[in-house]
Amino acid sequence: MPALDQQHLVIDSHVDSSLTDNIKVDPKVDPNSKLIELFIEAPEMQRELKTKATLLRDFTDVQYYTDGSLQRDPTSLDSMGLGWVNVNQETVCFSASAILWPSSTKAEILACLAALIVSAPKAQVTLFTNSAATIAGFDNLNRLMQQSVRKREKTPNFQIWMTMDYIIRELDLNVIMIKVKAHNGDRLNDRADTLAKDAAFHAPRLNLNYLALPELALGLTCDNLTVETSSRRCIKQLFEAKSFYDTLQLQRHADLETLTSQQHINWSSTSFMLNHNTSENDRASTSFRQHKLRAFKYKLFSDELPTLVRFKIRRPDLYPEDACLNCQRQPETQTHLWSCTSHQAKWRHILNQAADLCYHIFQQHNQRTLPTKEAVLQLIHESRTFIAKGIMSQRCFNFVHTHIHSETTTHMVIAQVYNFVYRQVFNNI
User: Fold this and answer.
1) Half-sphere exposure of residue 331, counting CA atoms within 13 Å on the CB side?
2) Each residue of 266-310: pLDDT tens digit?
3) What is the signed CA dihedral for 205, 77, 104, 262, rounded to 10 degrees?
4) Closest listed residue to residue 55, CA positions, set 83, 27, 92
5) Could you tell me whether strands 124-129 and 61-71 are parallel, antiparallel, or unpaired per DSSP bridges?
């Protein structure tokens, strides 16, 4: 993860005044061209948008179908595609791509912005989109612009929304967004969808110059890339990434580093599971019972369970022997705790119960693609090594997510199953 470079923090006390002077539109200058040159960085993209604006200059009631697409690439960077089709002249269309801070909603917002910037001044603009999140964000635009900078930063894609608001005010547009169903046989909507998908990896990049906004006098960049999210959240994530990297470099976590490099661990689900320990009977965050369970999970993750081998190292005068008290064959290490022959019957019984719980949770969600009991049982038993280390396998996450669909609910389901296992182990082994 690249570190922040202080030289890339652009802070200029004269930005407001200079930008405001440049933004004043000369009556003799085409306002669309002025805005395009102000916010669009790539010259070829500027020329294309100016051409579209010229073709649509005479329409005072203009309509667009817009769409955005997020395309995943396991071997490289995820990419967004965006596109719009003009209803007044169906031959007039536009598409572009973007890569930073990818999301399907961001792609939709960029498509709407690209349509607004080519619309004629004082026009009635109707945007047809299948993104409810984009419409909700647009409805909240006036409220967003009245907030302080600190609160405004917490809104996802706030820089794009600010740019869109400025374009609407400068062109004096009256904008309406209408929700349409995706893949419902609407010819122009399907065409916009095709444009967006094809553009993700093949169309030119659409990059915006956010510092051209008079309301935005500061831009945070990292390795010459504009940070398009909350600066506070971004810096927090950088330090968390650094702390996570340092943790993986510890000798005791050499196996975790190997599994991480091979993408066998889902760390977001692991973190959620380690910190989630509420139960139906005890939801108090200050409960001693909850604290003991969380401490057990973190000791398990850090290989710090109080085994006889560890006690012998700390107090050899009190623990002269470290042989397992159950099998009397091997030293009682944390690894041996799970492989001891005396515990195998209990261990299998606990995993079978966990599989039943997981299947019951699947049934509660009434999913159409309900897995078989045998598949769930096999998944839980194959995950025993990961459970013993306090981590979540990527395969297990993918299996649950395939049937649950919601990522948040998937984290919750996995945490419930893992916590059940750890409570049984804590009480019975």
Assistant:
1) 14
2) 999 999 999 887 655 555 556 777 888 888 999 999 989 999 999
3) 180
4) 92
5) parallel
Same domain, 369 and 414: yes
Residue 276 domain flag:
yes
Residues paired with 125 in a beta bridge = 62, 175
β partners of residue 81: 69, 97
Domain assignment present for 236: no
Does residue 345 sit in the same domain as residue 408? yes
Tokens 């935005």 belong to residue = 216
Q: What is the pLDDT of residue 7?
A: 35
CATH number at 37 reads: 3.30.420.10
Task: Identify residue 204 by its one-letter amino acid code.
Answer: P
The span from the CA of 337 to the CA of 209, in Å, is 58
CB 163 within 8 A of CB 36: no
Strands, sheet with 124-129, edge to edge from the N-terminal-most edge strand: 93-98, 79-86, 61-71, 124-129, 174-179
Distance between CA atoms of residues 342 and 325, nearest Å: 10
Strand partners, 166: none
Measured CA to CA, the distance from residue 153 to residue 112 in angstroms comes to 21
Mean per-residue pLDDT, 200-226:
85
Number of domains present in the structure of the chain: 2
Instruction: Specify whether 99 is located in the same domain as 64.
Output: yes
Statement to judge: residues 305 and 223 lie in one domain: no
Closest by CA to 302, choosing from 384, 383, 247, 242, is 247
Question: How many Cβ atoms are within 10 Å of 277's Cβ, its own excluded?
Answer: 23
Residue 260 has pLDDT above 70, yes or no: yes
The predicted-structure confidence for 234-256, as pLDDT tens digits, reads as follows 888 889 999 999 999 999 899 99
* pTM summary value: 0.70
State the residue range of the domain holding 188.
Answer: 6-231
